[in-house]
Amino acid sequence: SGPTVRLITAGGGLHKAMQGEGWVGPAPMAEYFAKNIGIRHARGRFILVTNPDVVLSPSMVAFLARKALREDSFYSASLRFDDRWPERPKE
Fold first, then answer.
1. Rounded to an integer, what distance in angstroms lies between the CA atom of residue 11 and that of residue 34?
2. Distance, CA of 91 to CA of 76 (rounded, Å)
3. How far apart are CA 43 and CA 67, in angstroms?
4. HEC string of the chain?
5. Portion of the chain with pLDDT greater than 90, in percent
6. pLDDT confidence of 3, banded at 50, 70, 90?
7. Other CB atoms within 10 A of residue 70 CB
8. Is the pLDDT of residue 68 over 80?
9. Which residues contact 60 (CB under 8 A, 6 or more apart)?
10. How far apart are CA 35 and CA 56, in angstroms?
11. Are 8 and 37 in contact (CB under 8 A)?
12. Measured between alpha carbons, how far is 40 from 26 in angstroms, rounded to an integer?
């Protein structure tokens, strides 16, 4: 079976409370505040932090599904399609 996934969300009440305290402005809560809340509430051995516009490739999903992550390692993946297009593999 695949990895256990737990989705943690920061609801509107939290946004209003933080605005009332002056921590954030009238715009929706800054993304990094919500990420930090999620990280603090995480219970697993590993945390996957992404942005809302991230699409994981099939190879990344397969890598995560293999459960081959090491606790003594930091993983980062970046392939941006908005600033350069990847080259097509040669046939």
1. 9
2. 28
3. 16
4. CCCCCCCCCCCHHHHHHHHHCCCCCCCCCCHHHHHHHHHHHCCCCCCCCCCCCCCCCHHHHHHHHCCCCCCCCCCCCCCCCCCCCCCCCCC
5. 0
6. low
7. 8
8. yes
9. 77
10. 18
11. yes
12. 24
* 13-37 pLDDT per residue, tens: 877 787 888 877 776 666 777 788 8
Query: How many Cα atoms within 13 Å fall on the side-chain side of residue 82?
Result: 4
Query: In angstroms, what is the C-alpha Rg of the chain?
Result: 17
Identity at 67, one-letter amino acid code:
K
Minimal CA–CA distance to 72: which of 40, 46, 48, 34? 46
HSE, side-chain direction, 13 A CA sphere, residue 19: 12
